[in-house]
Amino acid sequence: MSVISKFKDGPKIDKAIYWPSVIITIALAVYFVLNPESSLEKLNAVFNYMTNELGWTYIWFTIAAFASALYLIFGKYGKVILGGPGDKPDFSTFSWIGMIFTASTGSSLLYWGTIEWIYYWQAPPFGAAVGSWQAAEWASTYGLFHWGATAWAMYAVVSVAIAYSYHIKKKPILRLSEACRGLLGDRVDGWLGKLIDIFFVFGLIGGVTTSMGLGTPMLTAGICKLTGIAHTQQLEIIIITIWTLSIGVTVFLGLEKGIKKLSDLNIYLAFGVLGFLLLLGGHTVFILNHTTSSMGLMFQELIHMSFWTDAVGQSKHPQWWTIFYWAWWVVYAPAMGLYIAKISKGRTIKQVVLGSVLWGSLGCWIFFSILGNYSMGLQLSFLNPETFAGRGLDVITIFTEKGAAWAVVETIAAAPLGTILLAAFILLAFISMVTGQTTIAFTLASVTTKELKEEEEPARWNSFIWALILGSISISLLLFNALKPLQTTSIVAAFPLMIVLIVVAISFFKMMKKDKSVIKAKEEE
Questions:
Q1: What does pTM read for this prediction?
Q2: What is the pLDDT of residue 525?
Q3: Which helix or strand (DSSP H or E) is residue 271 part of?
Q4: pLDDT > 70: what percent of the chain?
């Protein structure tokens, strides 16, 4: 088969989902470009209402997702194999875990893992004094909490719900609406199902631009630090163009030759960068000690943090951080659920849930513990070199004067062999961004495909087009300073998406209860 025919061939698109999704997304992007300030003002008002007045719903939703994940791990359905008799996993366990982790985090993990602690240091929760030792402990703890098991449980529950419909019910449709069939019935075949999928597509695109808005400045700052060239908008556009084309090449290569290999490379490079910082960065003992304290504090206060709304103190910390994070995870949950479901044939429900909750959380904790505590160690050594040994750097001043992206870059550059390590870090950030956005392009193509059998992938031209759309929108919004409205829209979209995910979960458990004979047969295989 020629390269051209491989690109052109593939499952047909569902025009009723594909074209409205493309048109609505582009139309809203154009509106935001023409009216960036007024759009942001209106969206912020809606977002503030949702976080302040409806924030408690996100909290209860995540707690319910975590409880559901525990039930799937330890309950009677855990042994159910997602597939037919004799189905074996398509990927090795290492590659499978790597594909889940790299698809779900991207460059955002490198960004937040390095500097999120600064925000909590400067505005600590629970009445801790700014810059105090209590603030420092909470600063490391909250990153672990926001990127931990509670968040990953959302992905896990959605994943097994979609995988059950796709691999066991043998529905050749990889969409969020199809996972609602157990509760909504044949209505998912009509306008309601199309609306669910269109809404999901748009919310996801907004989430992607959020990641781009964090990753692009960090990549640009790193390149400027390494080369000495000026940090300009033109350079950011060049970077977006390069990673868009890289995404296009990766989706063209497909799951096995493209996404899997890039994910494996991502994991190996991450091990190298993190291992170097931990062992040779000069703050090994502090990282290990402070990580131990932070883990202990998180487990001790997990219930408190999970339910905290600060209704009396009105610090807005839960609204600005925890509820924002839960909304962000909700936006990504359907996409990651579809993707994880696609690559998890032959695995048990227990394996899929553990693959998300356990390995996903552990991976994020490693990044936050090493990157964040190394950065904090630099700051503490700068402030009090007599007490804290090792290299010092005023990370907070850099953060305040030059911005978060430069604080990340200068933190990495301050390590021994800083130039070489920074080059590796920037390469890791670039690959992470490409891996994450490739998954999104693949997922968008899957959702807009009419039928997608287990052995099939969406048409490569479809994935490639979505990669180009994502890159083009990102460049347009960056040029006209309209990135923030689309990001805020994505978070606003999280509330109705959360309702859809509740429907997905109820449908899943309803289908399993109805299919008792199928479940029993799967357990006996």
A1: 0.90
A2: 52
A3: helix 261-280
A4: 91
Q: What is the pLDDT of residue 1?
A: 47
CA-to-CA distance for 237 and 293, rounded, in angstroms?
42
Q: CB-based burial of residue 71 (10 Å sphere; 0-12 exposed, 13-18 middle, 19+ buried)?
A: middle
Kindly state the tokens that stand for 494: 């999280």
Distance of CA 388 to the CA centre of its chain: 34
Cα distance between residue 240 and residue 245, in whole Å: 9
Task: Read off the tokens for 38.
Answer: 């007024």
In the block, tokens 């995870």 appear at 329
Contact 153, 501 (CB under 8 A): no
Helix axes 15-34, 460-479, angle to 10 degrees: 10
CA distance 138 to 143: 9
79 phi/psi in degrees, rounded to 5: -85, -5
What's the token pair of residue 391?
A: 């290299």
In this prediction, residues 500-523 reach a mean pLDDT of: 78
DSSP string, 331-393: HHHHHHHHHHHHT-TT-BHHHHHHHHHHHHHHHHHHHIIIIIHHHHHHHHHHH-TTTS-S---
- The more confident residue out of 372 and 35 is 372
Question: Are 82 and 525 a contacting pair, CB within 8 Å?
Answer: no
Distance from C-alpha of 510 to C-alpha of 237, rounded to nearest angstrom? 48
Q: Quote the CA–CA distance of 288 and 211 in Å, as a whole number.
A: 29
Structure confidence by residue, pLDDT tens digits, 323-345: 989 988 998 888 888 888 888 88
Is 457 exposed, middle or buried, given 0-12, 13-18 or 19+ CB atoms closer than 10 A?
Answer: buried
- For residue 352, which of 68, 4, 32, 7 has the smallest C-alpha distance? 68
**pLDDT category, 370, cuts 50, 70, 90?**
very high
Q: With H, G, I as helix, E, B as strand and everything else as coil, classify residue 132.
A: coil
